[in-house]
Design a protein that fits this description.
Layout (H helix, E strand, L loop, with lengths): L1 H12 L3 E6 L8 E6 L1 H5 L5 H16 L1 H20 L8 H14 L4 E8 L2 E8 L5 H6 L2 H14 L3 E5 L8 E5 L1
Antiparallel strand pairs: 1-2, 3-4, 4-6, 5-6
Organism: Deinococcus gobiensis (strain DSM 21396 / JCM 16679 / CGMCC 1.7299 / I-0)
InterPro entries: WH-like_DNA-bd_sf, WH_DNA-bd_sf
Protein name: Putative transcriptional regulator
C-alpha cells in the first residue's frame, strides 16, 4: 500500500492525476478517489483520426464520394457560420487573417500571418505550421479543399494554396488576395 500511495503522490506532483475525498454512501471511512487530469489524459494515445478516416471511408462506400464531399461542405458551412461573427467585413484583411490564425492555432494548426513586401507591394500569407488532421487529409483531400473554401468565405477574398503539409511540404501556405 505505501508503494501505491507514493506512486499516486508522484503522479499528482506531475499534474497527471488529481485526488478528491468522498464519503461513502453507506458506512465507512471517507475514501480517496483519483482521476486523470487533462494533462494525464493527453498522455494516452488517441486514435480519433483513425476513427474519422474509417467513418468517412464507410460513408464513401455506402453513399458514394459525393456524400463525403457533402459532409465536408456541411462542416465548412457550420464553421463559417460560427466564425463569421468574429470576422466582420468591416475589419481590414490583415486583421481578419490574424483573428483566423488565432482561431486556427487554438485548434492545433500553429497558424501565423506573414506580411511580405516585394517591390513596394504587400502580400499576406496565412501559414499553418501543423496539420492536426493530417491522417484524414492524406486520405481525403476534400478536407483541404473544404478548408480553402472556408478561408475564402471568412476572409472575403481569393485564397490560393501554395504548399500543403498533406503533400509532404513543411507547411500549408495560403496567399491572400
Amino acid at each position: 500500500m505505501p508503494a501505491i500511495r507514493r506512486h499516486l503522490t508522484d503522479l499528482q506532483d506531475q499534474g497527471l492525476v488529481e485526488a478528491r475525498t468522498e464519503r461513502p454512501s453507506g458506512r465507512g471511512r471517507p475514501q480517496h478517489v483519483y482521476a486523470l487530469t487533462e494533462r494525464g489524459e493527453g498522455a494516452f494515445p488517441k486514435t480519433y483520426s483513425g476513427l474519422c478516416v474509417d467513418v468517412l471511408r464507410q460513408v464513401a462506400a455506402l453513399f458514394g464520394e459525393d456524400a463525403v464531399t457533402q459532409v465536408l461542405a456541411a462542416r465548412t458551412a457550420e464553421q463559417a457560420q460560427t466564425l463569421g461573427a468574429e470576422l466582420p467585413e468591416s475589419l481590414p484583411l490583415h486583421l481578419r487573417a490574424e483573428v483566423l490564425a488565432r482561431h486556427l492555432s487554438e485548434q492545433g494548426y500553429d497558424a501565423v500571418v506573414d506580411r511580405v513586401v516585394e517591390d513596394g507591394q504587400e502580400t499576406l500569407y496565412l501559414v499553418e505550421r501543423n496539420c492536426p488532421h493530417l491522417a484524414v487529409a492524406r486520405q481525403f483531400p476534400g478536407l483541404c479543399a473544404a478548408e480553402l473554401t472556408l478561408y475564402e468565405e471568412l476572409l472575403g477574398t481569393a485564397v490560393t494554396r501554395e504548399t500543403r503539409i498533406s503533400c509532404g511540404q513543411g507547411c500549408c501556405r495560403y496567399r491572400l488576395g
